[in-house]
Amino acid sequence: MATTTCKPTSYMCFLLLLLLLHFNLGKSQLEVNYYSSRCPRAEDIIKEQVTELYKKHGNTAVSWLRNLFHDCMVKSCDASLLLETVEEVVSEQASSRSFGMRNFKYVKSIKDAVEKECPMTVSCADIIALSARDGIVLLGGPTIEMKTGRRDSQQSYATEVESSIPNHNDSMSLVLSRFQQIGVDLEATVALLGAHSVGRVHCTNIVQRLYPQVDETLEPEHAQYLKRRCPDPNPNPKDVQYSRNDLVTPMIVDNNYYKNILKHKGLLTVDEELATDPRTSPYVKKMADDNDYFNQQFSRAILLLSQNNPLTGDQGEIRKDCRYINRNAT
Ligand code: HEM
Ligand SMILES: *[C@@H]1O[C@H](CO)[C@@H](O)[C@H](O)[C@H]1NC(C)=O
User: Fold this and answer.
1) What is the pLDDT of residues 90-136, one digit of tens each?
2) Which residues make up the binding site for heme b (predicted)?
3) In angstroms, what is the span from residue 269 Cα to ligand 2's centroid?
4) What's the 204 CA to ligand 2 centre distance in angstroms?
5) Which residues, 6 or more positions from 298, have their beta carbon under 8 angstroms from its beta carbon?
6) Model pTM greater than 0.90?
7) Are the C-beta atoms of 192 and 298 separated by less than 8 Å?
8) Domains in the chain, ordered, with CATH?
């Protein structure tokens, strides 16, 4: 008995305590205002840049929201998404799941402005998180208290993109399990899909629901509208043919998405499934009825997504240029 107790006076016990303390210190966590002492103006500079970009190209804000999803869903919120193909790195952006993603070049404006004030201090992973937060506000969505302190990966996970991010026509069971795996619960998953109240979908992701036969779950007039938007059954993915997600408030993050999908006017198969699957439909109805409830769940869900498995402490690095790991940067 006595041999298993840790006597504070014993030398071995002291070493053990030191060891435990060391691991605890090494395991830093995200916190609100992580940069307040390290780079006090960091969050203001990011907000200024996101606002300026939004004024010039409104859809940048839409991209920042999608970036958070595609970065955090693959392994970790670690800016692996932003790495470009070079030497041993294959970009996650080359995956078919990243189809339609845009505005990556403007991330550089944000990072450069931050670097000017505080070199090598603010991570690209935090820029993804904070630009998403600020973009959501510009798009009329809720104000979210985003934590910071993420660090950047030193590799890309291109081979894991397709097994992490669901496809437009995957089953709701698969979608739910993918989100569950990264700590996003059922209700939060329903809320996150509300991001599809902004932006667009290219015809390549819609035509399977129109040709050769119209998907019978589509509302008939909406199907006719989509056929006019996408007249070619085999569109060239390079053609800029698309439909907007929300025809009424296309640039506002709101609960209109849920109203649309309940009327079977969604664009993607997963949007339609969300409205009809017995597990998700009660939440879809609640969100369609109550925008405040949607905002509250959307905020909670964005936080869960943004906190997936971050690199912290001395893990990873702070990239200088978000497109390259430091050892590949010129
Ligand atoms: C089951 C999960 C999801 C699937 C299968 C999915 C799939 C897609 C697809 C196929 C597009 C259209 C791409 C194109 O044709 O250009 C799209 C657009 C978009 N998605 Fe998702 N998505 C999902 C979840 C999410 C989540 C969780 C978010 C953010 C929180 C999000 C944000 C967006 C945004 C903002 C756009 C519009 C992008 C633009 O206009 O540039 N999506 N999504
Ligand atoms: C889903 O769509 C892709 C094309 O984007 C297609 O290759 C695949 O067969 C479809 N899967 C199902 C289950 O319909």
Assistant:
1) 999 999 999 999 999 999 999 999 999 999 999 999 999 999 999 99
2) 196
3) 10
4) 11
5) 141, 142, 191, 192, 194, 253
6) yes
7) yes
8) 42-165+307-328 (1.10.520.10), 172-305 (1.10.420.10)
